[in-house]
Structures are given as C-alpha cells and as structure tokens.
Amino acid sequence: MAKAIKPTILVVNDDGITAPGIKALIEVMQEIGQVIVVAPDSPQSGMGHAITIGKPLRLDKVDLYEGVEMYKCSGTPVDCVKLAVNVVFQGKKPDLCVSGINHGLNNSINVLYSGTMSAAVEGAIESIPSIGFSLDDFTLEADFSATKKYIRQIAEQVLNHGLPQATLLNVNFPNTKDIKGIKICRQANAKWAEEFDERLDPHKRKYYWLTGVFQVNDQGEDTDVWALEHQYASVVPVQFDMTAHHAMSFLNSWKFND
Amino acid sequence: MAKAIKPTILVVNDDGITAPGIKALIEVMQEIGQVIVVAPDSPQSGMGHAITIGKPLRLDKVDLYEGVEMYKCSGTPVDCVKLAVNVVFQGKKPDLCVSGINHGLNNSINVLYSGTMSAAVEGAIESIPSIGFSLDDFTLEADFSATKKYIRQIAEQVLNHGLPQATLLNVNFPNTKDIKGIKICRQANAKWAEEFDERLDPHKRKYYWLTGVFQVNDQGEDTDVWALEHQYASVVPVQFDMTAHHAMSFLNSWKFND
Q1: Domain count, chain B
Q2: In terms of residue numbers, what domain contains A12?
Q3: What pLDDT score does A253 carry?
Q4: Residue B69 and residue B78: Cα distance in Å, rounded?
Q5: Interface residue A243 vs chain B (CB under 8 A)
Q6: Residues of B in contact with A48 (CB under 8 A)
Q7: B48 part of contact set with chain A, CB < 8 Å
Q8: Is B59 part of a structural domain of the chain?
Q9: B130 to chain A: which residues are within 8 Å by CB?
Q10: B204 part of a folded domain
Q11: Is residue B170 situated within a structural domain?
Q12: Of residues B126, B31, B147, the one with CA closest to residue B80
C-alpha cells in the first residue's frame, strides 16, 4: 500500500516567530501534515493588510523546533505569505495556510486590523484554503491547550471539504478550559471607541498612546461576539470582495453633470 | 438671511502631508467646506488597515497652505483618522472624510492594501461619510487637474444624500485629460502576481524587493477595472462586513466531534 502523502501546511502569524501561539499551532499541524513556517521576525500586531513597498525584505532560515522548516521574515504578515508562496514554495502552493494562534481575539471588526487575519486573507487571495486562529488572551502566558482539538478538527474539515472560492475562516476561541463547541457565525457589528492617552515626553512635547474600548452594537445571537461570550469557538467565513452591492441602486440614482 | 454653515471636511492621505495629491484634494474641498487636514508625516503607501500599537504617536500642527488647519501624524493613515476624530475634532465628527488623492490606482483588490482606502474605511467605521480618491499615476508629477470637477461633484452628492450605513466610496480616475464620466462599479476580481527581485547586499546576504504584475480574472463590464480601461472614473461602494454570508450553509453542514 502506498504511503499517503501528507498535506503541506504553511504556518504564519503576526506575533512573531518566537511567540508561544505559533508554537502551539505548529504542534497541531505537525499531527496532520508537513509544516513550513514563514513568520515575522518581530511582533506585527495591528498591521492589517500592510505590505512592504519602500524597503527590501529579508527572509532567513532558522532552526527553532525539531523537524520543522522555518523562515523568519523582516516584513509584515502579508509579506510573509507572499514570500512563502513565491520564494519558499516557488509557486507550488501549500494545501493549507494557517495563521496564529493569535494572542488576543480577532473577532468582529478586528478582522480589518489584524495581521493574523490579513495573512489568512492573503492566503485565500492566492487560492490557498486558509484559516486564522485567535485566543482571547493577550499575554505571553496564554494557555492554548483547550484549543488544539478544535484547531485540528477545523483544519481537517478544510483539507477534506475545501472552502468556497475566495473564502477563508476566522476562528476565535474563548479563554476557557471548557469550550462548549463550535458555532458558525457572522461578524458582529462592533467598533473600537478610542481613548488616546496623552503624555509629555522628557522634552515637554506631547505624544499619544492608542487605547480603546470595544463597543458592540449588535444584539444578534448569530455573531462571533455572542458565541465567544457564551464560551463557544466562533467560526466566521470571510470574503474579500468589499463591494457594497446593496448600495449600487442608490448610487445609480445620483445625477452627475458632464 | 443667515449665512449657511460650511460643512467640516477631514482630509487625509497615505502618500504623506507634502504629497501633491493631498494638495489637489485640499483645493477642491476648500471650495465646498471648512478643511482640516490630518495626514502622515511620511509616505505610508501599502499600509492597509495597519494601526500603531507598540509605540506612541506624535501629532503636530503644521502650516503649509493658507487658511487650512493642518496636522502631521507619525502613524499610519488609519491612526490619522483615529487621532483626528478623538484629539483634533474631540469627538465632534466632521461632515465628510476624504482620503487622497492617491498617487496610483486603488481599484479592485488594492482596496485591501491601500492606506488611502483604509483611512476612508476607518472614517466610515466612525460613521463619517467617507470617500477615497486615487489617480492612475504613481509619479510625483501626476496631473490631478482633470479629476477636480468630478471630485467636487461626488463630494457634494455625498454631503447632500449621505451614504448608506457602514458604506463608503472608492473613487479611481484614469490618467487622461478626457475622463468620459462616472461609472458606479463593483470591485473587479483581480490579484497581484508577485515577482520578488532577489539581490545580494554588499555583505553577500540575500534580500528581496516586492514587485508584481496585476492580473485581472474578470471579464465583467460592470467592474472598476473595465471602467478605468474605458477612461471612466470608477465609483465602487465599499462595506467592511467581511462575512462570507453565502458560505454559511456549507459550513453548517460540517460535522464536528465534541
């Protein structure tokens, strides 16, 4: 009997290649496939879909975990995916792209700000089945153990069934040992209400720290916010056609002069 | 007769506060409202929806153009909008947020990578009617003169009619003196095919420049790519609910074990 060929799995993140979250994700992916890691050499949280245009990129092999081919990249999470596809895989695409596990939630509107999710979006743009994983714990001491069986199941389902074209998954976990199960959700309507912390530097010049409060404007029980509040893992299918199709007829009613 | 109160207009960009494109946009906006500029102190192209988390932000008043209140910001285009709303406007929102005019197109998938468009998205998240403007010319010598009458009309329409909730506009102009008119479009299905330019530094270490070719996989005549190719200005309504609603039932058919 021929030995089954293991799927190739690209692992990326935004917290940097030494983060505990990516180590946990690598461990799960090693159970089901051949893992190649391309991750930022420094933390890239909040980098969204940024790419590096004005300066060159470094990509260097590193040897952190036994039996895992790993590269650190000087760029953003999206740069990592682009370099992985073009330089590391040389156009031969991986069977799966997983991003995370992020230290901190990427539910709701955070999908826009998150480097973790933007890396997964970039994987999907490259027609690779892609998933972003995040846990509701910002600390370096975050405990990812309860998430692992769900991550494995979700990754296996994606490998078995594929995903609809131009669609990826945004998976978020509550910070509990007792995850109740998985809910397929929509992105909740929520936003950050910023509160800039204004300070003076030693030279008496002002500077600002960005802080904020997460505001949920959505009572729905079909949202990722609801699922996480009720101790479920939330799975949101994500697409990257930003067109507001529902607004077309309204705009077409406007009159413009030549 | 009471004097009509002019609308307040926040102007932002991603090419930096000294770019010719933002000067052109300021000139148009001064015709219709009271302009306040908050723009990056350095070029921020390709920054997408990045925000600055790990370091503080600077925001300093500058005096570049007569009669215009202007601030330069050390952060990303999205940071600029957040600081504008919270520190400059102190929660009293502007009537309109315009971003650009970008030196280079932001049509199709570029809406994800573009700092110009992400600033407009952030404006919309803040419930401010928002528009991003871009011209198909990357150079500093770009000629924005033909775009001005369209920019004014589109801005006035948005001020008069408003926009549907959580919707903004992505406006792109062809690089021609003879713009044929305005087309309401959807985002074309296209992507960048990367071609990394591998080089050796003086110490014989490899580095990479990100380059690429824009690949359009869309024959539709209702897209922004089609409109621009045919010398029309493209107007795409944009929304930021990334949920792939069409994929819900497929995902709900998956079986997970407890």
Answers
A1: 1
A2: 8-188+220-240
A3: 94
A4: 19
A5: yes
A6: 47-51, 78, 118
A7: yes
A8: yes
A9: none
A10: no
A11: yes
A12: B126
